[in-house]
Amino acid sequence: MTIKLSNDTLADLPARIGRPGYDRSRLTPGIVHVGLGNFHRAHQAWYLHRLMQQGLAHDWAILGAGVRPYDAAMRDRLIAQDCLTTLIELAPSHRSAEVIGPMIGYLPIEDGNGALIRAMADPAIRIVALTVTEGGYYFDPTTGGLATSHPDIRHDAAHPDRPATVFGAIVAALRLRRAAGHAPFAVQSCDNLQGNGRITRQTVVTLARLTDPALAGWIDEHGAFPNSMVDCIVPATGPDEIALARRIGVDDAAPVTHENYRQWVIEDNFCAGRPDWDRVGATFSDAVHDYETMKIRILNAGHQVIANAGELLSVGTIADCMRDRDIAALFRKVQRDEIVPRVRPVPGVDPADYVALVERRFANPAVHDTTRRVAFDGSSRHTGFVLPILRDALREGGAIEGLSLVEALWAHMCAGTRDDGTAIAPNDPNWDALQDAARAARNRPRSWLEQDHIYGALGRDPRFAAAFERWLAIILADGVRPAIAGYAGQARA
């Protein structure tokens, strides 16, 4: 029997499925979360749910929000089931499910973001949290600042009361709060960015300064932008995941599957209070930078090491990549020789041990995490995860052959054809430009490295450029697998 998910049917769910033990009708909002994708619901919302199960944080419920037209479809699905979510944990040996309920509403998606601005201006909201992807911060890697020439940012500077971006909406809400004599809320990034709080502060304050320097100063002085590190592998939801939820007994239009691992490390820097997430497993630390460096470099960059190779070799999932002898050998050698030497230990965790943990997580056969999902938006993920390691290695005189091969594999993938001749569908917001550069690189490899918005001065480094050209030539002449096997074989020689 399958139960359609709603407040009214919670008691009818199969006994094996966990559910809220708190009265959702008595929850009041304290957080607006922008970007209600799978990751937020499996991670930050889950931590809050665990607190609520203990009778705590009932005044910290979540109002969901989005700023893009496509967010409306998710809003419709969640509103129809009272903003409840079924989480399905995929351990290697078993599955378990629970329904969580810390989210109590989803704001309308509308031009000008008026509903979002009004909600954030309410002094009851003390945290505005974000999962808007690594590429959603309008960060210009060539300047290290806000991309003020981006059309969205220019729009928000010209129309501060009807912004198009979440950051413009944040500035507009903070303007209303300041005018009303209310304190600001904390803005908490939950995206995989090195120094995500610092980048968020820079984006918000710089955007405010374009229209109201006094407001920008107030935000910078009184606001808070805590850094954090988030970690949980959460695949995309499709027909298979919806069918899995139904087999478990829940008719959920937007269920979430996730691995049996979570980590959240947070800088304790909030200007209007916060939930006690540490009571349910989160870590408050002044060393967030070290935790996030370890995670972003070993896990997130590690994903990019294998995903492009897997896509080119028609290997469908990350777990399948780890079962492929050559791709797994590529992962291990790049980690050992080029990534781990650029990572400092954190309390209780050695980088080499963390690599072993990540390898086990990637190899979990129950998690159907596609190479296509992990390879998506390489223009943000390589820029944020891989290239900083390359820069450090070049500065220190370290090994760069493996990461240069990874960049050549990405370039070859963006040309749009797998080694078996099948086409790769567009998989990046900048796909057309990437494909043009990748195809030009077949005859002149440096065409790829001349994408200054991605590589900047790194693309002109003679040592990196020579290694990239050499690996791309091998890939084009011999194929992806011989190139990978040749590199990994150096470890066995």
Describe the structure.
The chain is α/β, with parallel strands linked by helices. The protein folds into two domains: 3-286, 3-Layer(aba) Sandwich (Rossmann fold); 289-492, N-(1-d-carboxylethyl)-l-norvaline Dehydrogenase, domain 2 (Orthogonal Bundle), CATH 1.10.1040.10. It is 48% helix and 12% strand. It has helices spanning 38-42, 44-53, 71-80, 114-121, 151-158, 166-180, 196-211, 213-222, 239-248, 288-312, 318-323, 325-339, 351-362, 371-375, 378-396, 401-414, 431-441, 446-449, 452-455, 462-478, 480-492, and strands spanning 3-4, 29-34, 61-65, 85-90, 95-100, 103-106, 127-130, 139-140, 145-146, 186-189, 228-231, 250-251, 256-259, 263-266, 283-284. The strands form five sheets. Strands 6-3-2-7-10 form a five-stranded parallel beta sheet, with helices on both faces. A three-stranded mixed beta sheet has the order 5-4-13, sandwiched between helices. A three-stranded mixed beta sheet has the order 11-14-15, covered by helices on one side. Helix 7 (196-211) packs antiparallel against helix 8 and helix 15 packs antiparallel against helix 16. The radius of gyration is 23 Å and the shape is globular. It starts with a strand and ends with a helix. This is Mannitol dehydrogenase family protein. Residues 288-470 form the Mannitol dehydrogenase C-terminal domain. Pfam families: Mannitol_dh, Mannitol_dh_C. Keywords: Oxidoreductase.
